[in-house]
Every structure is written in structure tokens, then in C-alpha cells.
Amino acid sequence: MLFTGGTVVTAQAAAPAAVRVVDGVVSEVGDLTALPGEEVVDCHGCLVLPGGIDTHTHLQLESMGTVTADDFGSGTRSALAGGTTTVLDFATQFHGESLAQGLAHWHTKAAGNAVCDYGFHLAMTQWRPEFADEMADMAAAGVTSFKMYLAYRNTMMVEDDEVYAALSAAADLGCTIGFHCENGRIIDVLAAQQLAAGHTGAYWHQHTRPPELEAEALTRLGMIAGLSEAPHYVVHLSAGLSIPVLRAARAAGSLVIAETCPQYLVLDGSAYGEPDTDRDGELEARKYVMSPPLRTPADSDLLWKALADGDIQFVGTDHCSFRIAGQKDAAVDFREVPNGAPGLELRLPLLYSYGVGGGRISLERFVAVVAENPARYFGLYPRKGVIAPGSDADIVVFDPSATWTIRHDLLHDGCDYSPYEGRELTGRVRDVFLRGRRVVRDGEPLKDLPPGGFIRRGLPDNEIR
Ligand code: URP
Ligand code: ZN
Ligand code: ZN
User: pTM of the prediction?
Assistant: First the structure.
């Protein structure tokens, strides 16, 4: 198979070139002409990109008394339609389980259902001494990244001593741990204060999780991680206030990396509407109940700058979809609204349109933050994240001039809304290939998609910028 006429983009350069694929692997990139019998994919006018890697998804996650609207079937189909060919999902060790049980549980969910390639982070909702050995077992099984929550008290939140123990074990293994950075104890106090004042609507969610609580948790994490010089990263960074914290930690020698998400770059807290609203306004606000909450346009500007400057290294979606009907609408007050929103399919189009089209990041930086840096940090490079001889032929043919308006009925997830409804974008995924096999044609995933594969991963490259 030969991809001709397009501009091949890596994190380092964008140049006209053809790409030859043999047996699902890139064999040559350059000035190539078709061999007799070779299938040609005409990419004139298009960018030829490495398949996207979403570093942060929650598929078929049991949370807040319900389960996410997307399982591995619908979620990964939606991923492919949006140019993401690998997802890293959070396998979760629930209270009382071993890490092996959490991993086995997630393998059962994904195997035979996922249609793109996938790996797992292992989320630990508590610490037990035997987990140090179990983390080594996980790494041997290809799960080289972990996660802990500094919020969601009584379900997933861990305490500082647990963070210290886990980071020490991770440092011994060379593995990384991602942290949800918000101060869960103070969130509970602020939420109780709002409820005592009669403030029950989704509008108030943002006021219980101010940016200070993210920056504080990140500062505390940095100090604890410094004790063992452990690799670690912050998931879904949302606040401008956190960026100087990252810089200071790095200047002090910390191995800290940062992920942000499209929602914090493109949306803002005006989505929560007004405090006094009718039922329709309340349901509209509930679409955006996620943690951390949406911030201000000034925060988004700072995040874009940090992404361009290398202070933030990659973009995942935190795709955690709950339907309005029967899920978000059932909550009595803001504390009960299932936290999370969909976004898996729109990561590349949003980053391209607002980022490259908006003059906020270069084309090469776009590829770095959606594909190459995730691959390098999560031990997938150079198999994934780049179009180069020897890499998997995970290829996205992206039309940079197509204009379109986001409507949920154009998307392929299992949710019943998009937080980005009505946004006008320039740039659209045309065709997608997973290990050399076509999986999307003209923006539509093919009907019978073969299963994706579990990818065993190596150790993080802490030098990414
Ligand atoms: O609101 C969110 N983000 N839900 C998913 C769980 C998490 O915190 O990542
Ligand atoms: Zn989180
Ligand atoms: Zn998440």
C-alpha cells in the first residue's frame, strides 16, 4: 500500500512524501512511486499523520452508582473516527481488590470489544504494602503507568502516606504515576457550605473546586515525589495557577510531566450558565459537570501557551461519558451528578482547528502533543506515535481545509450529547488505517472492524518536552 501526494507530519517536520506500508508496518517514507499491484491511497491536499494516542479514557467505568455510556466497543469506534488509533484506559483496582484483579477485570471489558489498539494504566484507589510487588508484576505485564486520585474522598482518594509509598515503589521500577490533583478534603468542606446555603444546582460545582485546590495538590505532590525522585505526571491540568508550580518543580529537578484536555483549552465556565435557572438550564449545566471543572478564558490562554512552550507535554481527553437521560438527569444535587464528559472523537479536530488553525501551536507541535509525546512517555515509541520505517502503520489522512459544524449525531460515541455542539471547525479526519488496515473511510468507521490489540508498554521517557 502506498500513501501518495500528502504532507507527512512528525513532531519534528512536515514535508511532502509518500509512505509505503508492508504487512501493517511502515517500510519506507520518501519520494516513492507505486509498484505494480500496489494499492494507492491518494492523499493530495491532505496531511498524513501518525495515529493519535489518547492518554486518558474511562471506558465502561463503574462510577457514582452508574457506568459510563461508552464501553470499549462504542468508545474505540468513536476514537477511530476521530483519528485516535490507541487509547490508554484506566483499569481500576477498587477497594479490596488486588492490582491483578483490577487488570483482569479491564482485560475482560476490552478483549474482543475494542476496535483500536489499547493499553492500561492501573488506577490504585488505596495503598497496601503488597502493592509494591504487584506493581512490578503489572510492569512485567506491560502496564508501566499507574494512577492515584487526590480527590473523590471515600471512594478513590488516597492520603499523603499512600502517595509516598506508591511513588517510592514506582521510582524503584522506573514507572510513572499520574495524579488527579485536587484537594479532596477541602472540596467536601466547600460542597457542604454550598449545600447549607441552599445552592444545589450544577452551577455551584465549579465553586466547590477552585483552581487553588488543583495548584495546592500539585505543589504537595511535587514535594512528596521529590523525596524519592519518582517520575510522575499530573492528569487533566486545568488551571493557569498550576503552571508556575510545574515550572518551579522542574527547576528543582522534579521528574514531573503534564497532561491537559481539550475541554480546558476550548470551553470555559460560562457553560455552567447562571445560578438561578430552570430545569433545561440545569440539565445544560450538568453536561459540563466534570472534575476539575471548566475554568476561565484566561486559564485556557495560559494552558495553550504552556502547551506551545513545552510546559504541558500532551493532550488526553478524560473521555468519561454519561448520558443526560437517565444518568446526569437523575441527580438530586450537584454532588450526585456523575462526573465526566465525552470528547474522544474530537481531540484531533479540536486541537487542529483551535490550535494549528488558531495560530496557537505549530503543526509539528500538534503531532507532538496528540501522538509522539504520548508514545514516548507511555513506552510505545517508536512502534506508535510516528510515521517512520518500522513503526506500526497507524495512519490518519487529515483534510486540513474541510470545514464542518459539530453535531452529536455526526459522532459515534454512546453518549447523548457533545459538549462542543455547534462549534465550527476547520480540519477533519478523512481516512484512518490501523496497522495498515483501513478502518475509517470518508469520516465513517467501517461496519465490521477487527478487534484491536492490547499493547504491552515500556518505561517512560521523562525528557519529553
Ligand atoms: O470528571 C471526571 N474527570 N471524571 C472522570 C474521573 C477523573 O477524575 O478523571
Ligand atoms: Zn481525574
Ligand atoms: Zn479521568
Answer: 0.98
In angstroms, rounded to a whole number, what is the distance separating the alpha carbons of residues 150 and 131?
18
Q: Which of 291, 319, 334 to mutate to test the pocket of ligand 1 (most atoms within 8 A of CB)?
A: 291
CB 222 within 8 A of CB 244: no
Task: Specify the ligand 1 atom closest to the Cα of 56.
Answer: 9
pLDDT of residue 46: 99
Whose C-alpha lies nearest to ligand 1, atom 4?
340
Tell me which amino acid residue 380 is.
Answer: L
**Among candidates 395, 399, 396, which has minimal Cα distance to 436?**
395
**pLDDT at position 258:** 99
Contact 429, 349 (CB under 8 A): yes
Shortest-distance atom of ligand 1 to CA 290: 1
Residue 427 — φ and ψ, nearest 5°? 115, 130
* Residues with pLDDT less than 50, the chain: none
Hey, whose CA ends up nearest to atom 2 of ligand 1?
Answer: 340
CA distance 210 to 266: 18
The number of the ligand 1 atom at minimal distance from the alpha carbon of 58 is: 5
Mutation choice for ligand 1 from 56, 58, 67, CB with most ligand atoms inside 8 A: 58
Cα separation, 317 vs 319, whole angstroms: 5
Query: Does the beta carbon of 320 lie inside 6 Å of ligand 1?
Result: yes
Give the sign of the dihedral formed by CA 279, CA 413, CA 56, CA 305. negative
How much is the pLDDT for 107? 98
Q: What are phi and psi of 190, to 5 degrees?
A: -65, -35
Secondary structure (H, E, C), 270-289: HHHCCCCCCHHHHHHHHCCC
